[in-house]
Specification:
The protein has 465 residues and is α/β, with parallel strands linked by helices. It has 19 helices and 17 strands.
Length: 465
């Protein structure tokens, strides 16, 4: 620990965002970076605590005190090695992770100025790419066994990477035209430039992982469990019998719907329909006028108060929307920074204001959707009503009660961002493993990566029993 008083002498400094009037006109990453001196100064604030709760809070078990100290000392190579000893993809988490470690930081408890772990993490991995520290591993000893990974999202990539490093011949099957899962098709470019994903995929390919795109998982209605898992291509074959093990990392593909009257009207879409299409447009894909989902010149309503809803707001602004409103059926979170219901070092469920919210948005809570309204088959507005939540006398989930009178929110585009349904799986053969969101339901990218790594260990244990 180079400067034991840094946390007392140096305040937390975040890189911040590009100016609003600049960033809403493009899909470039909104987050800025600090210079090298400032980044090392921020790393010096890490206290090397006797009990580092950041270790405990991170699903990957990252060790910020170790790599922050190396960063402060200017040993970027050591910082890179320490960081990647637990996290295979810091360039992803360094951009989009909510930084559970920072909320658990002792400095967050002390003065609500935790160490800038997420930004430090991103700076370390970008320096590693820039300085050539990252080179493909070409000396991996192969063990002669083959593993298929179905799904190229963060969980699948983490499992494939770990298994490949263990010596397995890994083939990744992906239903889309490129790898990344929600990293590519759910998270907007203004949060994660897709060139960052492409860079990592090229590295994984150089290390021996084979990617097969546009090949979708299908469930066959066969009586034999061995025939239930298959990939559809020109010659249908069964993964279970073709590989020594199979890892299913197919995520949570089914979005939660809202079955209100008028749901069939044109102009109502799941959030990922908008987000994935916009990312594909930026990648050069073309869509017909009837296919294109755009907020240009429209009043937009986003139903759902989470990160996906926030991403829709930022995308709507960049597409040129007239206005955007976000409603949430649950109560407004506490302002924070503390959450009495989830005290430090647990994650505080407090009000979150994202870069997209800063760009302009009417936000409302305790609002229930009653009906979609339209003319000539197209959406014109959404009837909503303010509600309240009362304690359930029988215990369990609170009871929703009407509070205000129904009203209409004008909208020509409505985006449903209410989360995803947890997948249900049949009984698979014993050499089939499930990981990430496909196993646990929708969660954080960092948890998906951790699940992929853990599943790879389970596969290795199974194949070497």
């Amino acid at each position: 620990m180079g400067n034991p008083k840094a946390f007392l002498e140096t305040h937390r400094m975040e890189a911040g965002y590009r100016p609003i009037n600049d960033r809403i006109h493009d899909f470039g990453e909104v987050e800025q970076t600090l210079n090298t001196h400032q980044r090392r100064e921020q790393a010096s604030r890490c206290m090397d605590c006797g009990v580092p709760f950041c270790h405990w809070a991170c699903p990957l078990g990252n060790k910020p005190p170790e790599w922050n100290d190396a960063l402060y000392r200017g040993d970027w190579l050591l910082a890179f090695r320490l960081l990647t000893s637990t996290n295979p993809f810091p360039e992803f988490t360094g951009r989009i992770c909510p930084a559970l470690c920072e909320k658990a930081c002792v400095l967050n408890r002390f003065n609500h100025e935790p160490t800038t772990n997420r930004e430090d993490e991103c700076a370390i991995i970008e320096a590693a790419f820039r300085e050539g520290y990252i080179q493909p591993a070409t000396d991996i000893a192969r063990n002669g066994k083959r593993v298929a990974v179905v799904g190229a999202g963060p969980a699948g990539l983490a499992a494939a990477n770990a298994l490949n490093r263990m010596g397995y011949a890994v083939t990744v099957y992906e239903k889309n035209e490129a790898a990344g899962g929600l990293l590519r098709y759910g998270i907007p470019n203004f949060k994660l430039n897709k060139a960052v994903i492409d860079r990592r995929i090229r590295l994984l390919e150089q290390e021996g992982i084979v990617f097969r795109f546009n090949e979708e998982l299908r469930m066959k209605n066969e009586e034999s469990p061995a025939d239930r898992l298959a990939v559809a291509n020109s010659s249908l074959f069964t993964l279970h019998s073709s590989f020594d093990a199979v890892v299913l990392a197919t995520g949570t593909p089914t979005a939660r719907d809202l079955k209100a009257p008028g749901r069939e009207l044109e102009g109502i879409h799941f959030a990922l329909e908008l987000l994935s299409q916009q990312n594909r447009v930026l990648a050069g894909m073309e869509f017909g006028k009837d296919e294109r989902i755009t907020a240009k010149g429209k009043d937009v309503l986003v139903i759902g108060g989470g990160d996906t809803g926030s991403d829709c707001i930022g995308t709507a602004h960049r597409q040129g929307c007239k206005s955007v409103t976000q409603i949430e059926i649950m109560p407004r979170p506490a302002e924070g920074p503390d959450d009495p219901q989830n005290p430090w070092p647990y994650w505080p469920r407090t009000l979150k204001t994202t870069s997209s919210h800063e760009e302009g948005c009417t936000r409302r809570w305790n609002v229930n959707t009653l009906e979609f309204l339209g003319e000539e088959g197209r959406l014109t507005g959404v009837k909503v009503q303010e509600i309240d939540w009362k304690p359930n006398p029988d215990g369990g989930r609170p009871v929703m009660v009407e509070k205000g009178k129904p009203e209409v929110i004008k909208a020509e585009l409505c985006l449903l961002a209410m989360g995803f349904l947890k997948p249900e799986h049949p009984d698979y053969p014993e050499n089939v493993f499930v990981c990430g969101d496909a196993q646990h339901g929708a969660s954080l990218v960092v948890r998906a990566i951790a699940s992929g790594i853990e599943t790879a260990k389970n596969v290795n244990k199974y194949l070497n029993r």
